[in-house]
Specification:
The protein contains two helices and ten strands. The protein has helices spanning 105-129, 147-156; strands spanning 11-14, 23-30, 35-38, 43-48, 58-63, 65-67, 71-74, 81-82, 84-89, 92-97. It has a six-stranded antiparallel β-sheet, with no helix packed on it. The chain has a two-stranded antiparallel sheet with strand order 4-5. Strand 9 and strand 10 (92-97) form a beta hairpin.
Length: 157
């Protein structure tokens, strides 16, 4: 299994590529492929087909994958891009800043928790502000006239 020096929620700086020098937060990491997705970096355009009435189609922009070797963690304490060292803190293996020795894991966890809380709050607020949709009664189809068809069928027999 490939392990990465970065985790979801880490603040990173891009070291190479067209977005060199940009800073952002890691949205997702895939250790098997050795790539990460950074918010606002390597933005790609996707053409999406509509799938039902609720999901309209169109052109969407979303961050693409970047190889993990092209990003470097920014220490939350000293604010410098740093290489990751490993040390045992309270009997557990933790990621540590090479410059100041501060733990990188605590800051990442706190950022992810804050993100989840704000996402939940925004979903609840948007659900409360939306007015419930009023359903219309289905329209009745006109009754078919079957009497004429049976009369013409009787005449031909």
């Amino acid at each position: 299994m490939n392990s990465l020096h970065v985790k979801k929620g880490d603040n990173v700086i891009v070291l190479a590529g067209k977005d060199k020098g940009k800073k952002g937060t890691i949205i997702s990491a895939s250790p098997k492929a050795g790539t990460v997705r950074v918010e606002g970096v390597n933005v790609i355009t996707k053409h999406v087909k509509p799938s039902g009435a609720q999901q309209p189609g169109g052109i969407q922009k979303e961050p693409g994958n970047i190889h993990v070797s092209n990003v470097q963690v920014i220490c939350p304490d000293c604010g410098k891009p740093t290489r990751v060292a490993h040390a045992t803190v309270d009997g557990k293996k933790a990621r540590v800043c090479k410059h100041c020795g501060a733990s990188l894991d605590k800051a990442a966890k706190a950022a992810v928790k804050k993100e989840k809380k704000t996402a939940r709050k925004s979903k609840k607020e948007s659900a409360e502000t939306e007015a419930p949709a009023v359903e219309e009664a289905p329209k009745k189809k006109p009754a078919r006239k079957t009497a004429k068809k049976t009369e013409t069928a009787d005449k031909t027999e």
